[in-house]
Amino acid sequence: MDISVVIPVYNVKDYLKKAVKSLENQKIAKMEIILVDDGSKDGTDKVVDKLAREYSNVRAIHQSNSGAAAARNKGIDLSSGKYLYFMDPDDWMESDMLQKMFMAAEDNKAQLVISGFTNEYYLNKKYFSTLVQLKNNVFDQQHFRTYTPILLNNTTLAVPWNKLYLSKYIKENHLYFPQVKWDDLHFNMDAIRHIEKVVTIDNCSYHFYRTRPGSETTKVFDGRLFENRKNQFHHVLSNYRIWGLDTNADVMSLVYYYYATRMIQVIQEIASASQMNLQEKKMNLKVVLNDTLTQRALLESKSGSFVISFCFKTMKTRYVVLNLLMGKLISIVKDKLSNVFYRKRVNVMKNDE
Questions:
Q1: For residues 170 and 191, is the Cβ–Cβ distance under 8 A?
Q2: Does pTM top 0.90 for this prediction?
Q3: Mean pLDDT of the region 285-296
Q4: Which residues lie below 8 Å from residue 279, measured CB to CB, with a gap of 6+?
């Protein structure tokens, strides 16, 4: 096999067929598709079996509900392709996606290929999309390590479905998705830790549904959001320490920028949390604002964006009420002017060389 595609599947009966069909339209002759049903309860398991009967290269695997990470890990163990690709079951791709990634890997003998992608939104009864695009580039180990903060900030490093991994590299290094929050980024940080050759391509043929029709439900605040963000970032920092880049001011200003902007999200979610009263919101905000890692990230970060700079200055004051108002304002813009918010969000991400 040239490529083994692994798809973790859970309660996506209305979307899975489109995802698989978009794979079958790929210009890759030797490709296997491993569907790992993770204990679906909505009839998705029947769709998985039907697709396996319909397409000779589709393999149906069923397991008790263990999470997407365990499903992907099962796929890794069962895969036989030269390259590994992980797709989400409710997304789709254009017909040139895997061929371009495969050719980039083969032509450059790369261990990893990273592409851009298209974010798809359905909010306030309207569709819109944003592009996250990379430049065509071939990286040796050192050049790639200094470039990773850009990929970290523009979200292309975090996810698995815009990447083609050399299976030999993944398996020889015993790399698996961990059972942690945001296991995707954790896996990718482990994957790039000792990687030697990486290619980025300007293709945006993967369509990622950030929101979809029928998915707009009341969001419950995750009380562990701040703690999970800190744990995630400490894992990110470990790579830069191992690489000896933790004293490189230019690199680390971008790395800390990543964390500081995630703290804006934490503040916004605390401010808009319906299940907390005002006093609880103030207490949670105080913890975030006075945390030494938050303040260091704000001190080390540099932003060319007026909006982000304003947010950073507000956070540096540590004034709880002022930050509460900032978080509420961000929530209002996000809810009422979704199109503007998400397009602006792409513009403020550090994605230029």
A1: yes
A2: yes
A3: 97
A4: none
